[in-house]
Design a protein that fits this description.
It is built from nine helices and five strands.
Amino acid sequence: MARNLGPVCRLCRREGLKLFLKGERCYSDKCAIERRNYPPGAHGQARTRFSEFAIRLREKQKVKRIYGLMETQFAKYFEMAERMPGITGENLLVLLERRLDNAVYRLGFASSLAQARQVVRHGHIAVNGKKVTIPSTLIEVGDTISVTESSRQKKVIVEAIEMAQRRGVPPWMALEREQFRGTLRSLPARAELTMPISEKLIVEHYSR
């Protein structure tokens, strides 16, 4: 599967906000946004006027990077959101939140989304008691996500759980930290998704 192998701190600088792609580093004074809060490149500090197309494109790119998706994957989720009843933009965000790697990160079993994807692929996560190794698996309301018994002493998972306490668990999920498991209590409401995302611009981008 294609994935971004470049320096991820450049992505945060390009979008002008913290995307929390580096785990604990994002909370320290080493964060690239704290040190150089302007786009990367020779002309990063130049004043730029964006066209309507560029504004919509940047919003799509930002959401892709938040959830760690490539273009083809993201387009497929948009197509799924269009076919669902309700508001397309909100459907899209809910679908992205339902990805297993995202749920693992939200519950604090990994310190970043990239690490969550790796934890899933390496077989450390189970859904409803069954090991799942596909990060894009969509979880349902009531599903239980847990760290497998044999992986609960893994240093990377123990450290991630300790660091995650400052981040907290979103209200649509329930965490039983001592049991290394969590549950999707409900689908997230739009008001509960606090990242600065304008999904309407993404819908407009694909509708042009």
